[in-house]
């Protein structure tokens, strides 16, 4: 069997391709352009419906590329004819075929400290797991997902009040800086990933379903992830903000705005009843006439 030989990134580069699609991939693209790199082509996801309207719209990366006057395509094969030194990949959303990796050297910004949290949702999983530290890895792209050697990394502490939005914003900013600095200085020799491997599968709706038998710290982290929900009198209740509180009782039982957990309790601060707007929890409590006999999760 013929052994695969992937194109290797040069130590120094100037002419780039950029592959990315969502909002998190916009800032690194802007940083590269601001730093004076020649972005010969941007490859992004195809236009699609992104709201309730019938018309399709460009991805955030495509919109940014057009604004900056950069050539942009949704055809991955176009990177082959762009004559670039290197392609930078940030949340592109597609697996890169070996037939392209053999001809175009590629590096990737991954939002975790590899090999912890390989996969689609590294920021979400780090926050949900209660990790105290995470970061950004600048890595080689290999045939298997997120297994490439690491050129550089940047670390950050996960604060007790970090939300998914605040943590992601910080990591994107760190990633853009790490990328530009590494390319300006010249890519160092990469090192293999070492340590325990964990996988960050996508967050599902059921993952966001509050389990009141868990500790209050677990519930707090889930809420800070965004999209947490429970049930109240048979209808869905979204929970947007809580604070860890003292309290006890059967998991899910309500005392004022304090909900008992398997260990400790949380105080509801901002909620959203099914079919209604987001509101402060006290207004919801008064309107719903919540009593001590009510129990969330039922």
From TrEMBL:
Protein name: methionyl-tRNA formyltransferase
Gene Ontology annotations for the cellular component aspect, listed alphabetically: cytosol
Residue span, Formyl transferase N-terminal domain: 19-181
Pfam families in UniProt: Formyl_trans_C (PF02911), Formyl_trans_N (PF00551)
Domain Formyl transferase C-terminal: 202-288
Organism: freshwater metagenome
Cross-referenced PANTHER family: METHIONYL-TRNA FORMYLTRANSFERASE, METHIONYL-TRNA FORMYLTRANSFERASE, MITOCHONDRIAL
UniProt entry keywords in alphabetical sequence: Protein biosynthesis, Transferase
Coiled-coil region(s): none
Entries under SUPFAM superfamilies matching the protein: FMT C-terminal domain-like, Formyltransferase
Record-linked Gene3D superfamilies: 3.40.50.12230
């Amino acid at each position: 069997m013929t052994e695969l030989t992937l194109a290797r990134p040069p130590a120094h580069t100037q002419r780039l391709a950029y592959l990315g699609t969502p909002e998190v991939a916009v800032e690194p693209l802007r940083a590269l352009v601001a730093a004076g790199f020649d972005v010969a082509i941007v490859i992004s996801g195809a236009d699609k419906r992104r709201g309730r309207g019938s018309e399709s719209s460009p991805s955030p990366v495509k919109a940014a590329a057009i604004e900056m006057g950069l050539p942009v395509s949704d055809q991955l094969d176009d990177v082959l004819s762009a004559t670039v030194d290197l392609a930078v990949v940030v949340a592109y959303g597609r697996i890169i075929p070996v037939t392209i990796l053999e001809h175009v050297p590629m590096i990737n910004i991954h939002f975790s400290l590899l090999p912890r949290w390989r996969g689609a949702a590294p920021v979400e999983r780090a926050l949900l797991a209660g990790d105290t530290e995470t970061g950004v890895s600048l890595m080689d792209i290999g045939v298997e997902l997120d297994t490439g050697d690491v050129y550089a990394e940047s670390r950050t502490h996960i604060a007790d009040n970090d939300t998914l939005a605040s943590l992601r914003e910080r990591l994107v900013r760190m990633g853009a800086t790490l990328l530009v600095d590494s390319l300006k200085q010249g890519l160092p020799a990469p090192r293999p990933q070492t340590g325990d491997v964990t996988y960050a599968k996508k967050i599902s709706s059921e993952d966001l379903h509050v389990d009141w038998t868990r500790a209050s710290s677990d519930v707090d982290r889930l809420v800070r992830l965004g999209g947490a929900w429970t049930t109240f009198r048979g209808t869905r209740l979204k929970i947007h903000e809580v604070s860890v509180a003292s309290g006890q009782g059967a998991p899910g039982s309500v005392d004022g705005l304090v909900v008992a957990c398997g260990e400790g309790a949380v105080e509801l601060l901002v909620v959203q009843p099914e079919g209604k707007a987001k509101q402060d929890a006290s207004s919801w409590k008064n309107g719903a006439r919540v009593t001590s006999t009510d129990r969330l999760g039922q």
